[in-house]
Model the fold of this input.
Amino acid sequence: MAGPGGGGGGGGNDLQWCFSQVKGAVDEDVAEADIISTVEFNYSGDLLATGDKGGRVVIFQREQEVGNEFEFSGTKKLIYFCQSKSRPHHGGGEYNVYSTFQSHEPEFDYLKSLEIEEKINKIRWLPQQNAAHFLLSTNDKTIKLWKISERDKRAEGYNLKEEDGRFRDPVRITTLRVPVLKPMDLMVEASPRRIFANAHTYHINSISVNSDYETYLSSDDLRINLWHLEITDRSFNIVDVKPANMEELTEVITAAECHPHQCNVFAYSSSKGTIRLCDMRAGALCDKHSKFFEEPEDPSSRSFFSEIISSISDVKFSHNGRYMMTRDYLSVKVWDVNMETRPVETYQVHEYLRSKLCSLYENDCIFDKFECCWNGLDSAIMTGSYNNFFRMFDRNTKRDITLEASRESSKPRAILKPRKVCTGGKRKKDEISVDSLDFNKKILHTAWHPKENIIAVAATNHLYIFQDKVN
Done:
């Protein structure tokens, strides 16, 4: 069966996805620090950023050749030397390493005797305003604004120092020289411009850049804060669901996102499977939501696991702002922002796991937080599953496909074969039994190019890039 399509670059409902690239070491033993924890394309899709559990951010650039890398470690910067930007275009346009830097370090809160992991929870790009690129990255407690800039010229011919940096004897300086700019190998530099700290008591689960591009939201389990990108020493608490008595706590915030066009509107999801839409014009504290989205539960299907699997792990507005997509443990739901009573579309991601919930609870997999993403035209959606499977759903044709990110199928331009899971009875040749799924291999983080049919899928410590066959 052909896969769903429709990136910003066109494509129909009969796309075939093929392998493009895979990044990451081949070693069987995966270091915890190398596990990818977030993936994000920038607004143009020319840059792709990943964050990992070791606190590093790696940025890939499309059709950019990277030369020998010389690393200068310091508290402020990490610099990479790259070859010239000029490179002939070739089909597909590969993503190659553009910049790598240490975004967060492990910390220790002495007042609370608490270790703060360096793991990058989220990365969000800002729209490009000049030659430099800016992105926000966050761990559990601290958000940083990074500037990624290029230099391909250097000044030569100083009066007071030699080319190697040594200062000249002032007595021997008899003429005045005018320094000139000379071309040099491209150098990409990442430097922290702002650090937004000490505003969250609990772990940050979301950051979202507002459509005014001046403010952004950060969300933890119980509070959502609004920041100005230029102001680091204060933020405004706009949602606070912390009860006076913590024993009365019944739900927590799981994700939050700004509306793509209306800078006063944002949505946040909860562990009870509900979504609240809030309007910042209504009050400084958005404790009273303007809309409340919840699907009534079927009493006949209620079980011990109902509340756990109904918890929403991700919420995303469509690019046009008309719909919201939410991911819970077993399904993806699409909500019309004008209809609060029930979702307009529901897609089962891995319904065959419903009979396995007990064992998934025992091995803690039931608490995995899967993300979801839209394609550029909002016509298709993608989310991950186990066994390095990921799912795509075409909203127009209602067709779906299961694909696998694996090194076995990572031959150049190899077309991905649809995978099917067999739940019982006789297994067909190409099917895989639900009992032989590997729950240690999971696709939690995916990203779709905003304009083309190119997708990025994080599978443990590997980043897979796939594209449609016609690309």
About this structure: The longest strand covers residues 180-196. The chain has two helices and 34 strands. Helices lie at 306-310, 357-362.
